[in-house]
Amino acid sequence: MVVVMKPQASETEIENVIKRAASMGAQTQPICGESHTVIALLGDLTQVQRATFDAMSGVQKTVRIQDPYKLASRATHPERTVIDVNGIRFGGEQVVVMAGPCSVESRDQIIQTAIAVKEAGASVLRGGAFKPRTSPYSFQGLGEKGLKYLAEAREVTGLPVISEVMTVEAIDLVAEYVDILQIGARNMQNYALLQAVGKTRRPVMLKRGLSGEIQELLMCAEYILSNGNMQVMLCERGIRTYETATRNTFDLNAIPVLKRASHLPVVADPAHGTGDWELVPPMSLAAVAAGADALILEVHPDPESALSDGDQSLKPERFADLMCSLRKVAEAVDRSIATPTGSVDTAETSDKEVPNTVEKETGVALA
Ligand code: PEP
Ligand code: MN
């Protein structure tokens, strides 16, 4: 940190800043220029508050040199973090594609979708069981039953699963069934939830808040990291701007900005970023070109009848086409698309009768 003194600051004011910094455990290095004196604060600055100096007489401003997000910062951790989820590596040379419906709607729907996305080359299955909906009258997710169906889809396909956890109380339940915990955009700054997932040892994908600045996203990641969980991925999912042509404004800049600022893997979510299935393929390609380590995409066997986010969901055939284009873009930026591990266990599907109807269950109580 650097304390910049006002041009007319007196010797006593400069001396007071140096004494105050020393009382907080910092070493000081005054630099006297022609008009200004600046005082560099060095060493252990954990007890140093910028506001203390900003309030002192003769001080013009304080300038932070180090990132406030120490554990997430690339400056303090230059090598990239790679998160291994059952052999699928996030943050390495390969780009991971996660795909599946916005919500788990029935056993049939999630298993069918899981098989289709795996066949097309996705290596992680997504599906929401606890849904954060704008309206309390909209489908809220199947809750634990949805988690059970997800776990069954994992058994059938071998794909690891990711699903959202919305409350501290539900963490143990969700962690029992899923491989990656998703913190949704609306909960980016739910500090109690961040601290609690930080105490688990499950990988966490943290989504950027609707109005979250990139630095705020990194500070939220810091809450998880500082509680001991170093397996955090950052997800750009679009932000609120004045633009109304799309549901959100997908902030492509955030991808290289996050990769420069942090060693954590960066995930792109062009489905929520655009809210429009037609825009999902071009923005997915752009995200990989921009350096995303993973994509999370919404795929539904029948988007028109989806219980949430059908308008931004790809049909399985369109998803398969996109995977072909993604492979070419990945190659152009010296990467490749991760391939799913294991084969589909057809015995699993034929043993158990898969119902053909969609269970339109609503009003599931949130844990
Ligand atoms: C989702 O992934 O379905 C979701 C609700 O995302 P977000 O939190 O980004 O809105
Ligand atoms: Mn969704």
Pick out its properties.
binds manganese (II) ion; Alpha-Beta Plaits; four-stranded antiparallel β-sheet; 367 residues; elongated; alpha/beta; 32% helix; 15 strands; single chain; TIM Barrel
Q: Mind explaining what this structure looks like?
A:
This protein has 367 residues and is an alpha/beta fold. It has 2 domains: 2-14 and 22-63, Alpha-Beta Plaits (2-Layer Sandwich); 83-354, TIM Barrel (Alpha-Beta Barrel), CATH 3.20.20. Helix content is 32%, strand content 17%. The protein contains 12 helices and 15 strands. The strands form 3 sheets. It has an 8-stranded parallel beta barrel, surrounded by 7 helices. The chain has a 4-stranded antiparallel beta sheet with strand order 2-3-1-4. Strands 5-6 form a two-stranded antiparallel sheet. α8 links the parallel β12 and β13 (266-268). α3 packs parallel to α11. Phosphoenolpyruvate (PEP) binds at residues 102, 128, 132, 184-186, 207, 237, 272. Manganese (II) ion is lined by residues 102, 272, 298, 308-309.
